[in-house]
Design goal:
By secondary structure, the protein is of the alpha/beta class. 46% of the residues lie in helices and 13% in strands. A five-stranded parallel beta sheet has the order 2-1-3-4-5, sandwiched between helices. It has a five-stranded parallel beta sheet with strand order 7-8-11-6-12. A two-stranded antiparallel ribbon has the order 9-10. Helix 15 crosses helix 17, helix 16 runs antiparallel to helix 19 and helix 20 crosses helix 21. The protein is elongated, with a radius of gyration of 27 Å. The two termini are 23 Å apart.
Amino acid sequence: MLETLARSERKLLIVDPCSECEDILPTLGRAGWSIELSKLSSAREHRCDVGLIRLQASHLEHPEPIKQLIQASGTEWVAAVDHGLMRSAGGSELIGQWFFDFHTLPFDAERLRVALGRALGMARIRRHGSVHAPAEDPDMMVGQSPDIRALRGLLAKLAPTTSPVLIQGESGTGKELVARTLHRLSKRSTGPFVAINCGAVALSLIQSELFGHEKGAFTGAYQRKIGRIEAADGGTLFLDEIGDLPLEMQTNLLRFMQEMTIERVGGHVPIKVNVRVLAATHIDLEKAVAERRFREDLYYRLNVLQVQTTPLRRRPQDIAKLAEHFSSIYASEVGRRPRRFSEAAISAMLGYHWPGNVRELANRVRRGQVLAEGREIEPADLGLGNLEDADNQAMTLYDCLFQAERKAIDAALIRCSRHMTKAAKTLGVSRPTFYRLLHKHHILEDDPSNA
């Protein structure tokens, strides 16, 4: 039974096999591989632990199907290739960018067994540390830190209500993502989600943008325009950077929230609108109220329920998963597999203070995907080659100690291939102490084979 289980966990998919591939099948079967054969056109229908593609000249002429297969599979692939094809510019580039390893024909059974074993090991490591989020879902709320888990729980409670929610936090901490999540989990999810940045619209246009206007209401109003509030009818209205809304418009918005009716500019007929209002700001609205820059009555109308986002520097345990998530999203822009991050890159990210928060991390990972020349993204690719600026930034003692501790743990896990006993020994701590550190930093290690 154990032998059957082991084989079921080692599924090898061979794509576009040739006679050489068929000859090697019995040897691979004896080595514990459960093998399926497939043409490239139907390969995405199969699930596998490792993939082997018999790379041919025709594949180089149209490489996109191979790239799409590797991108969608979420595992590691080995290329079986002729010497001549390997030496070609197109062949070496495709293999270097997209494959974990390659094997030149004719097959050497022992070398192939080792290559497939290494690919399986790497695939398992990548799956173990993955964010479990599809690359095509950029709105996924990624992370397992206490703050992000508490936020997910809070949003699940707030979403079913119809009360206004005020979302506060630093720029780049995901306030719009919070708003979209509230909409997605609400009973209004089938209705529209309409967002407007109150600080990005010209003062002369903001009333028309919010409330709409009738034809002829002012010079240039050649036809009726539906405003953002009316467009959100039956759904959710998200007012981003509400603190930048002019005082005059705050009065109009307050009236709307009290009566849930609007009048278009140039119109005289009240229009009933059914929307849920979410607002976000990076400024201290209570201070703005005290300074008479924001209406107190509007503040209390908006601040029925509250959400506070956490800056990235206070949730360093999420940085690696977020980076992997963004790497998956942006890899398609440069036509390559998501690059892995080197140990040095992970250390650089953990040691950086992230003044721009998650938005800055996304931008740096995007840059890294474009600039990386090797198999891994290095600190310089992220623009983090010189950490002196990061070291000089103002950080609390807790932040410094927490990040240093996390940095040391991640480096030990990478250096020791996630072997717990070796990692603990590298850090000079006992195994129980090491597991307490893993628990503290929410690094979940549940694979007994790593013991």
